Amino acid sequence: MEAPYIVIIATGSEITAGRSLDTNSGWMANQLFELGWKVKKIIALPDDPDLILSELQILKKLSESRPVLALMTGGLGPTEDDYTLETVLKLSGKKSYSVEKAKIRLQRIYESRGKQYSDILPTVIRQTHVPEDCKTLDNSVGIAVGFMESIGVDSYLVCMPGVPSEMKEMFTRRLTPELKRIYPRENLVQKTKWLWNIGESLYQKDFVETHREELFEGVEWGVTANRGYIKCIFQSTDSNKLETVVAALESQYPKIISDDVFTFVHEELISKKLTIAVGESCTGGLLGKKLTDPPGSSSYFIGGFLTYSNDLKQSLLGVSKDTLDQFGAVSKETAIAMAKGISEKTKADYSISITGIAGPDGGSDEKPVGTVWIGIKSSDGSIESHSYLFPGNRESIRENASNTALFLIYQSLKQRKV
Amino acid sequence: MEAPYIVIIATGSEITAGRSLDTNSGWMANQLFELGWKVKKIIALPDDPDLILSELQILKKLSESRPVLALMTGGLGPTEDDYTLETVLKLSGKKSYSVEKAKIRLQRIYESRGKQYSDILPTVIRQTHVPEDCKTLDNSVGIAVGFMESIGVDSYLVCMPGVPSEMKEMFTRRLTPELKRIYPRENLVQKTKWLWNIGESLYQKDFVETHREELFEGVEWGVTANRGYIKCIFQSTDSNKLETVVAALESQYPKIISDDVFTFVHEELISKKLTIAVGESCTGGLLGKKLTDPPGSSSYFIGGFLTYSNDLKQSLLGVSKDTLDQFGAVSKETAIAMAKGISEKTKADYSISITGIAGPDGGSDEKPVGTVWIGIKSSDGSIESHSYLFPGNRESIRENASNTALFLIYQSLKQRKV
After folding, report:
1. pLDDT (tens digit, 9 = 90+) per residue, A110-125?
2. Surface of B (225-254) touching A: CB under 8 A
3. What is the ipTM of this complex?
4. Which GO terms describe its molecular function (chains A, B) (predicted)?
5. Would A348 disulfide with which of A239, A251, A275, B232, CB 3.0-4.6 Å?
6. DSSP state, residue B275
């Protein structure tokens, strides 16, 4: 069988009106990519049954010439702008029925809240309905049942809830096994490396163009720009070729290369039983937030200080008035004094300080907006500081600064290992 | 003229492979909505010239029967997977030329970095190219020039860079005036209110269904679920009708209704010259981050404490060992002691503490995952605390907790006004 033509559809007027960001489609695309399938198109449509139906008819038509897999999220909720079931019934000419198992589950949920079945609103019961003769996809998180409707030879329309936690569980546990059973997959291997503070064009010129003939035959490459780093992605059916490319990349950029720093820092701090504390000025808590995103971070993150004002830099972290007056709040000396203060107050193995000018105001000729100093006290007691001039707006500068702080922790942990 | 059929297209394999989230399309959709136009479809396509061309051909065809406006971002960069210009030339059968003004600008940028024109890579110069006989859209942030190509009667394909800061500036300053000149707009008025800790279904049943006949003739409504709150949106061509709906909503939900709390808290703290400080446990910095997102937050946010560990709750905020032993870290008593500690150490007018169980571990029968206590010391010296049981996963609980903390600040500031 030919690889399926995969289309992801998100429905919701809140998406097409720009009030809400569709994160489901990207998540699914990534999952599919890792499973060996490529998405041809991602579509978002308003809650308009005519527009949705006409899009589904195009896909049904397309399935006459090749296998089509359409994955649709949203529109299975209880409100009147939820049109998915109705539209699919129109497309197929079928009727719907209420899935017994889902009805029982709904009843139990209501009983556990001390309510009766008769309390359940009809609009809520509608969420247990699916078209006749389709494959149902159980929802173990929420109420709405998903389903997989045949729309042609080897072609399916999959409908799932728009609530991310429900969709993800359904996709992973119910849908993925079905898709693996039905569709052939490409046996691609992928490697990703991160390079810090380098532009995409320069990377392409200096690495990809330079090594094109010797390294890139049978290897696809891609690059995505992120805040502070670019992700260099390589794919091939030949894992040896990938190893060679990555080795060349490592030898060309030894000082700015890393793996996923978020994952590494998290795992390394846990496995080495090390602790970390922060002191943030311009990032206002963003570094602490990033360090505590993963479950289990309480085993290393003990806390820290948000010293946005100069008064708090003095009273909480013991930065001297002299240092602030002489060198300014955004300086090597302040970054180092902050790192020392964090370490003294928390006794953490690693202490990271960030002080900078996130803008849009507060810049000068000498210290323009984007100037950031990061101090790091490592587990061996040494204190380093690094200065940066990050590009972009306030949000970009704050993201750059906190990501780069994680890269510095990464490097310090790596050196520790050796 | 009929309203244009608006399609937004984002190109980029990083989007269709799920490695990067398309935030441009939603931003544009929102801008267009506020200008009085509705988007019919948002599409993301991989960097595949054939797929892009075939999509553009469909839109060109559609423009034979009605005005079409296609807004495309991405693919104008310097790397070899940037296909936009090439594809548009194929669609139109035109040639391209380098825009003189953009070339001079590029030269100045290079000179300001101490480089010569001859240093500029040809791939970078390519970014100054546009199709012949099109309307160019200057880029005052980056290098790539945007353009607006006629694809039929009253129909245009607009190509803009994928870098958000470049696209936004170009959209607002260059494109919007053109669109206003060309297309008629719907004169819709919109009102948005937020309701806290209530589900969409219940809102629909209790408010929309109940008042449908008396309130909703000529008024469209929509609702989006967010972390901690739902946004209730109403639209009409008649602003009096909107006022009536909003008044009814306020009278039905006086205790849980708010405007955009992020904007209100920011503006109110600035205009009343009040200061705020935080003490965060389970949110790890997220509340501080949210408070410092907007420029100008340094006039009210003085800083705070990330007391993730119990040791730091004691040593930094003076929460007593007795309190922690007797009531636990997640308790009314600890939340209040934290708020007191923040206030004493920072002298801020408002002190907010958050302590909770973000999970997935650490829950118990008595205090399940999602249990969060928030303490707030207001400018009049009073201290309150509130407990919540937030739904969802770790990320959801942290978002819920920090948003709800902002709602509590909102309420306290509102009461202060009276």
Report:
1. 787 677 777 777 888 8
2. 225, 231, 233
3. 0.78
4. hydrolase activity
5. A275
6. -
